[in-house]
Amino acid sequence: MFVKDPCGIACILVTYLAVFYADYVVIKWVVLQTMLDSLWGTFNVVMFNTVIFLLMIAHIKAVLTDPGSIPLPQSRVDFSDIHSSDSGCDFVNWTICARCETYRPPRAHHCRICQRCIRRMDHHCPWINNCVGERNQKYFIQFLLYVGALSAYAVALVVISWVQECQDCIQDIPLKQARIMHCVILLLESALFGLFVAAIFIDQMQAILTDETAVEQIQQHGPFRPHKPKMALLSEVCGKEHPLLWLLPCSSVSRKMDTPLIDHHV
Ligand SMILES: [Zn+2]
Ligand SMILES: [Zn+2]
């Protein structure tokens, strides 16, 4: 499922451009200019690109993973019996989406951009051109973490390169001016993206630990849910494996379905 939203596609391109520019400045204007004489330079290039690799994997997974969309019904659904049905209490909290014309489980909400109802929808994020929902929230949070780590790493490398400037590296004035310009742009870019993802990361943690998605925080009339311990809430989003593995964008989120999918064959 790929959403055809021009704003979302532009945001993805901006993200990739920003990451590639950061890599270019770090390699060409920081490491090659000031850290050539040691293994320290090679080490930083490898580490910086490892973070970029993880960032890209998490981002691609957040973009391409279905956030938990509710399939549209094959045929028109007859809603007249929704309250009279006593065939089972599994569907007690299910609601109807008038736009999708279908039943949806509790905590599912309609996204106007995706034009679908999304399970446990948090918000629609243009930076991943996708909703943040039940099945891709883990990758979204990993993406935020890696962008934060990359920003901090870039700032650290620029600072280190200025403090430990080697004497015989560059004496050429235009070259030095170009280096200053690129380093300043990289610092600004890192500060901007770093603070931005830090703010969203705090929001996401609050939403998970209070067990309320951004959509539910606005509505403030969600059904009562039993209180759960913090680790249980985190593992609902990140998976059952060891918390250290939550940082890796490789394992897929294997969640049990809270509610069965309704059969639409009326
Ligand atoms: Zn809907
Ligand atoms: Zn959406």
Give a quick rundown of the structure.
This protein is mainly alpha-helical and 266 residues long. It contains six helices and six strands; from the N terminus they run ααββββββαααα.
The radius of gyration computed from the alpha-carbon positions, rounded to a whole number of angstroms, is 23 Å
Strand order of the largest sheet: 1-2
**Helix content class:** 40-55%
* Category from helices, strands and their pairing: mainly alpha
Low-pLDDT runs: 255-266
Order of helices and strands: HHEEEEEEHHHH
Hetero groups bound? zinc ion
**Form type:** elongated
Mean pLDDT: 86
Membrane topology: Multi-pass membrane protein
Domain Palmitoyltransferase DHHC: 94-220
EC number: 2.3.1.225
Transmembrane segments: 7-27, 39-58, 143-164, 184-202
Name the features:
50% helix; disordered C terminus; PFA4/ZDH16/20/ERF2-like; 6 helices; two-stranded antiparallel ribbon; Palmitoyltransferase; single chain; mainly alpha; binds zinc ion; 266 residues
3D structure, described in words:
The chain is 50% helix and 7% strand. It has six helices and six strands, in the order H-H-E-E-E-E-E-E-H-H-H-H. The protein is elongated. The chain is mainly alpha-helical and 266 residues long. It has a domain at 6-68 and 129-247. Helix 1 (6-34) runs parallel beside helix 3, helix 1 (6-34) crosses helix 4 and helix 2 (39-64) runs antiparallel to helix 3.
Layout of strands and helices, then pairs:
Elements: H1 6-34, H2 39-64, E1 95-97, E2 102-104, E3 109-111, E4 116-118, E5 123-125, E6 130-132, H3 137-163, H4 173-209, H5 214-219, H6 230-238
Antiparallel strand pairs: 1-2, 3-4, 5-6
The protein binds zinc ion (2 copies).
Residues 97, 99-100, 110, 117 line the site of one zinc ion.
